[in-house]
Amino acid sequence: MDFQAFYQLSYGLYIITSVWDNKKNGFIGNTVFQVTSKPPTMAISVNKENYTHDIIAESKFFAVSVLTRNTSMDIIRTFGYNSGKDMDKFANVTVQTSENGLPLVLNDTSALFECRVIKTVDAGTHTLFIGEILSAELVQPNADPLTYKYYREVHKGKAPAKAPTFIDETDIKAGEEIYTCQICHYQYKASAGDPDHGIAPGTSFEDLPDDWTCPVCGATKDLFEKN
Length: 227
Ligand code: FE
Fold this sequence. Notes:
The chain is mostly beta strands. The protein has two domains: 8-153, Electron Transport, Fmn-binding Protein, Chain A (Pnp Oxidase, Chain A, Roll); 169-226, Rubrerythrin, domain 2 (Single Sheet). It has helices at residues 51-59, 73-80, 148-155, and strands at residues 14-20, 23-29, 32-37, 40-47, 61-67, 95-97, 103-105, 109-123, 126-138, 178-181, 187-189, 224-226. It has a seven-stranded antiparallel β-sheet with strand order 2-1-5-8-9-4-3. It has a three-stranded antiparallel β-sheet with strand order 11-10-12, with no helix packed on it. It has a two-stranded antiparallel sheet with strand order 6-7. Strand 8 (109-123) and strand 9 (126-138) form a beta hairpin. The chain is elongated. The protein binds fe (iii) ion (FE). Residues 181, 183-184, 186, 214, 216-217, 219 line the site of fe (iii) ion.
């Protein structure tokens, strides 16, 4: 099986949230798709080990925020690389409680959906939740949605120049060392530094402060490997 073939499948990236018994959580997922238009339904695939999985299974409701291309690293780090068991993911985001009581994340969101689960399919490691769409709202009509391909390329440093972690490979000096985060594949390059976090261009990886962490996922320095 050629796993590269899977990269030919197109996906978006979404924050999927739910709430049950005063526990609210959300995570970044890529498997969201419309199933039917009459009635409007959509499906999500959720890993059973995900904290939000059990919350959706109990509440039978979920909400989807469609992320935009300009989604901040803070949002990706908070919802993509942390567990709601350890932190309140909603502490530093703009969240609105819907009429159905669902937490709707508004940051970097182009559209919002709310669903009531009408069918659950056991898919082994994952559960497929099929939901009747209760509401659909366009938040940023002109925003481009973030795709999984774009995200992957951005964080591997092959992204368009507007992306926050863009690294122009033509700028890589001969012999320059690159260190890659083993968690999220962000690449640190000395000539680019990490100006958003006070690291000036030209700072070598060795000279980064010990408490510097990956700007994407928050991994510590020891989780980086030299390419
Ligand atoms: Fe990382």
